[in-house]
Amino acid sequence: MSAAAGPVPPRHGKIVETGSYGHRAGPGRPVSIGRRGRMGWHTSSDLREHVANADAFLRERPVENTVLLTVATTLHERGRHSFGADEPLFGWCRSAGGAVVGAFLHTPPRGVVLSHMPPEAARALPGVLAGLGHRFGEVHGEAGLVGAFAAGQSEIAGAPREIRRERLYRLGELTPPTPGPPGAARRAGPADRSLLVPWYEAFAREIGDPDSVPAVAVDYRVSYGGLLLWEADGVVRSMAAVSRPVAGTSRIGPVYTPPEFRGRGYAGAVTAAASVATREAGARDVLLFADQANPTSNRLYQRLGFRPVADYLMVAFD
């Protein structure tokens, strides 16, 4: 990813000591955190600058930072407006010694995504965004860090509204369902587009997280063989998408089965097939998120061999 995006010298900038968590700064200007300026946030709308400064940090913990890594890869391959017409925003936080200790990205209309970072950096970030005049609706990240972010945002605006609690899982030893359902897995191709775009839309409606460009998402996944289908008797029953491997990790999702085909083992079968395909593509760690409000899917993934890593939270600021 770093080499493909092209070399860009890191821009450390000057850490401006503000003496508090209240910040006002223009785009690209560093903003300090804490009473003695121990850390500072830097922002940019340039993906290459983000990669040059934050990519190595994100790859140190690729499991916890999976979303930021895969989104950056998608932006690099599909273009800066992959997720919508508005400009993305990136940020990284440096310690007083210059080391990157946190990062975020925002690809409207999706929410802000937080990396692993010190809680005080997460709490300070809303002030940085307010200083830029940058608007956002949602935030997603490790539950404790989203809580810290929300505490900082509550000093500027209102309290957050919880949207969804998720659990990040990592695959251990794969245990495919036995006996499996009838049928077999296959990769999706262009001929499946008319089926899969409505499925993407239906999945987004079910979780309350609409994808602004489902057709683009389907086309992108199909382009690299990243959509697995379970087909029985000539009918596609379920799908599982997989991200390109990055930093030795790949993430499964969405996994979707239409209501009329549920409860027959298709989701487990296609998820197992996607897990095998992902490892064959070079991923060391196979990941997925599951909604904690859905005990059925959580039990299914654990039976397949997925083990909990961390809890994540998505909140909205209305």
TrEMBL record:
Recorded GO MF terms: acyltransferase activity, transferring groups other than amino-acyl groups
A Pfam family assignment: FR47
Highest taxon in the source lineage: Bacteria
Keyword Ligase listed: no
Residue ranges of every copy of the N-acetyltransferase domain listed in the record: 183-318
Key words of the record: Acyltransferase, Transferase
UniProt region (Disordered), positions on chain: 1-37
InterPro entries in the cross-refs: Acyl_CoA_acyltransferase, Bact_Acetyltransf, GCN5-like_dom, GNAT_dom
Protein name: FR47-like protein
Organism: Streptoalloteichus hindustanus
